[in-house]
Amino acid sequence: MFKRVDHVEIVPSDFEKSIDFYVTIFGFKVKGRNKVDWPPMKEIAYVELGDTVIEFISAENPAPKSTQPFQVGYKAIALEVEEMDKTTEYLKGKGIDITMGPVDLGDSMRAEIQDPDGLTIELRQWK
């Protein structure tokens, strides 16, 4: 019946900055952009990496992200990486702080970074 997660939606504070971050840093490709007339929504953009799709929604005056680390709702997205050490060095070279880890969990390595709005992105290298 259910096949897979089709996409994840993000409402960023700066639509263009967020799209650029995911495209430039992670290599997502812009799959499509559409203006919408459904206030407060103004535009949507789809970016993809492999079979992972993120839908960015441009909205008029979006409310700020909560500062509570554990709140009801989605907590993070996770990207699988080939090699944690190379990935974290690459990100540091781009000026991106590693906010947690890397830590060895036995069957995997795990680290975290944040996107321009402070949304958590988990990095996972499976052993």
Number of helices: 2
Average pLDDT over all residues:
94
Query: Which ranges are low-confidence, i.e. pLDDT below 50, for 5 or more consecutive residues?
Result: none
How helical, in percent, are the residues? 10-25%
Assembly status: single chain
Distance between the termini: 31 Å
CATH class of the largest domain: Alpha Beta
Question: What is the name of the CATH superfamily of the largest domain?
Answer: 2,3-Dihydroxybiphenyl 1,2-Dioxygenase, domain 1
Q: Radius of gyration, rounded?
A: 15 Å
Structural summary, described in words:
- With 127 residues, this protein is an alpha/beta fold.
- The protein folds into 2 domains: 1-60, 2,3-Dihydroxybiphenyl 1,2-Dioxygenase, domain 1 (Roll), CATH 3.10.180.10; 73-127, Roll (2,3-Dihydroxybiphenyl 1,2-Dioxygenase, domain 1), CATH 3.10.180.10.
- It is 17% helix and 43% strand.
- It is built from 2 helices and 8 strands.
- It has helices at 15-26, 84-93; strands at residues 8-10, 29-38, 41-49, 52-59, 76-80, 100-104, 108-114, 120-126.
- The strands form 2 sheets. Strands 1-4-3-2 form a 4-stranded mixed beta sheet, covered by helices on one side. A 4-stranded mixed beta sheet has the order 5-8-7-6, with helices on one face.
- A hairpin with a 5-residue loop joins strand 7 (108-114) and strand 8.
- The mean pLDDT is 94.
What is the compact description of this entry?
The protein is of the alpha/beta class.
Helix-strand blueprint:
Layout: E1 8-10, H1 15-26, E2 29-38, E3 41-49, E4 52-59, E5 76-80, H2 84-93, E6 100-104, E7 108-114, E8 120-126
